Amino acid sequence: MPNGQLCIVLGASGFIGSRLCEVMGAKISNLKAFGRSPLYPSAFSQCRWIEGNFSDINQVTNAIAGCDTVIHLVNATTPASANLNRVTDLEANVISTLNLLDVCVSSGVKKIVFISSGGTVYGVPSVVPTPETAENDPITAYGVSKLIIEKYLFLYRHLYGLDYTILRVANPYGPYQTNKKNQGVIAAFLRNAIHDEPISVWGDGSVVRDYIFIDDVVSAIELAVLNGGDKKIFNIGSGRGLSVNEIILTLESVVGKKIEVNYMPGRNMDVPISVLDIAQAAEVLRWTPKVEFSQGIQDTFEWVKSSGL
Predict the structure, then answer these.
(1) Which of 187, 184, 196 is nearest to 257 (CA)?
(2) Regarding the domain delimited by 7-173+211-237, which CATH topology (the fold level of the hierarchy) does it fall under?
(3) From the DSSP assignment, how many helices (H) and strands (E) are in the chain?
(4) What is the pLDDT of the chain when averaged over all its residues?
(5) β-sheet bridge partners, residue 166
(6) pLDDT tens across 92-120, in order?
(7) Helices (H), 65-113
């Protein structure tokens, strides 16, 4: 952060927020973290922790007072839960974010970094790897909400000059991911493998996704804070796809044993393949992923074992 500027992370107690605050807190003195009670308080030892609920606009208003930059990580639903209750998803994510944007304008916030979804906003991709210019036809309410928020960020910049950068993050994994919200297949698979429990796979395991290690996501967010150019939307992923079956084979080699798999009927919310084109982030943000998948899995495995999950 530029000297003297104050930054706040909203949704700090989650997976990405915990690691982000741990890393950024060690680098800058002016960092506030806002969220519900964290599972890992030590991650916020060098931040000013503010406990609160994103849906309470008064709490949000007090939290962002004096801040120049807001990093918006709040994600109140999952792709599965959003489809089940679309009104709740809209209220929890879109309406609450609109309230946040109004407060940002009235409070003098200069910049918002929003974490969107590279895995859902494109729907069934028209091209793979998928660039930021591809069509946006989400097939989940979760993706629709992310896309609506993106459009409102554009609107608020046009109307009020509120700057923003959007990161369409692929499928992050790594330390601090706990699968508490039924997200994160790698965290769930590792936990089950360690405890000799079977894993459940939707479909035949051929679904392909782009997986990105958490520390690479954190470095992208740090660079997004500094981005002041005309390009506002960036894909953040590894740029390569892995099927669920390939992931299982990698996990078996790391944990050193066979993993029992229960294959279940596929879901209509799961696109067959999702891999992001990350060339724009490399060109504009000067960001590229550093952690190879095998190393990221090993690091995640060590963390899961040490955390006692």
Answers:
(1) 196
(2) Rossmann fold (3.40.50)
(3) 11, 13
(4) 94
(5) 114, 233
(6) 999 999 999 999 999 999 999 999 999 99
(7) 79-84, 86-89, 96-107
* Cα dist from 54 to 16, 37, 74, 291, 307, whole Å: 16, 12, 8, 32, 27
CA distance 179 to 290: 24
SS3 percent helix, strand, coil of the chain, rounded to 5, is 40, 20, 40
Return the number of other C-beta atoms located less than 10 Å from residue 179's C-beta.
Answer: 18
User: Does the pLDDT at position 182 exceed 60?
Assistant: no
Place of tokens 């729907």: 123
Q: What is the pLDDT of residue 80?
A: 78
Domain assignments of the chain as residue spans, ordered by start? 7-173+211-237
Closest to 67 measured CA to CA, from 130, 10, 145, 138: 10
Supply φ then ψ for residue 84, to 5 degrees.
-75, -35
Q: Whole-model pTM?
A: 0.95
Residue 152, by phi and psi: left (phi above 0), alpha (psi -120 to 50) or beta? alpha
Q: Within 13 Å and on the Cβ side, how many CA atoms surround 26?
A: 8
